[in-house]
Amino acid sequence: MLIFWSWVFLLLGMVTALAITVDVSKRPQPMAIMNVTWPITGLYMPIFGWWAYRRMGRAPTKSEQAKQAQHAREGHGHHHHGGEIPKWQSVFVSATHCGGGCTLGDVVTAPIATATGFALLGSAVLGHFVLAFIGAYLFGVLFQYLPIRAMSDASPGAALRDAIKADTLSLIAFQFGMYVWMLIALYGWLGEMNAFTAPFWFMMQIAMLIGFVTSYPANWVLINRGIKHGM
């Protein structure tokens, strides 16, 4: 049964990610990195990820964006006074941004750890976790660095420092939630960290969702303190 439900939820995640990808191609995000982040979110949030994207991330179509830009140039821009974005929503999107980099790092490093039998202190589990953290940190900082460079005149060094400050706490919180669940899954159902099996990725899917939840308070604190900008 575990294999059956693993494939069900993995396929739902892939379908959700594909649906978001297709929609994003027609409605590119103002912040380019979110064109990658939203589909990744769909991978570990099957179905719900589509709702979250539609509710909080969907942008106008390319033609609508062109019309808005033209109206703005002509001085006929329309201002909608719908109020500011709710705080919970801003933090949610920021958490998906963090989750996108973490998830990508985990997806890249898990097969490497399994294929190489990488271990630390004689532990394959510790080897998996350390490689996952390194990959998640590199991609996470990159996901922060690129928009900082694109949206400001900060130097590469300053942008990198800001990216590290903005991502470190939320990344640690995300990975912590993920590790706790994977340890539970390892001794409860999996038996080994084998990245070439469907149950492993089903457990990772759940782990990433839990990581998102544990990173949410960290993103709230970072935004409140002005270390990270709400989205």
Please outline the helices and strands:
Elements: H1 2-26, H2 34-44, H3 48-56, H4 62-73, H5 87-116, H6 124-151, H7 156-190, H8 198-224
Helix pairs in contact: 1-2, 1-3, 1-8, 2-3, 2-5, 5-6, 5-7, 5-8, 6-7, 7-8
What does this structure look like?
Residues 63-82 are annotated as: Disordered. Pfam families: DUF4396. The chain crosses the membrane at residues 6-24, 36-53, 125-148, 169-190, 202-223. With 231 residues, the chain is mostly helical. The protein has one domain (2-73, 86-224). Helices cover 77% and strands 0% of the residues. The chain has eight helices and no strands. It has helices spanning 2-26, 34-44, 48-56, 62-73, 87-116, 124-151, 156-190, 198-224. α1 (2-26) packs across α8. It is globular.
| Outline | globular
Strand percentage: under 5%
Count helical runs.
8
Question: What does the radius of gyration come to?
Answer: 19 Å
SSE ordering: HHHHHHHH
Total individual domains: 1
Mean pLDDT: 88
Number of strands: 0
Instruction: Give the helix/strand class.
Output: mainly alpha
**Main β-sheet description:** none
Give the helix level as a range of percent: over 70%
Parts with pLDDT < 50 across at least 5 consecutive residues: 77-82
For the terminal residues, how far apart are their CA atoms?
Answer: 40 Å
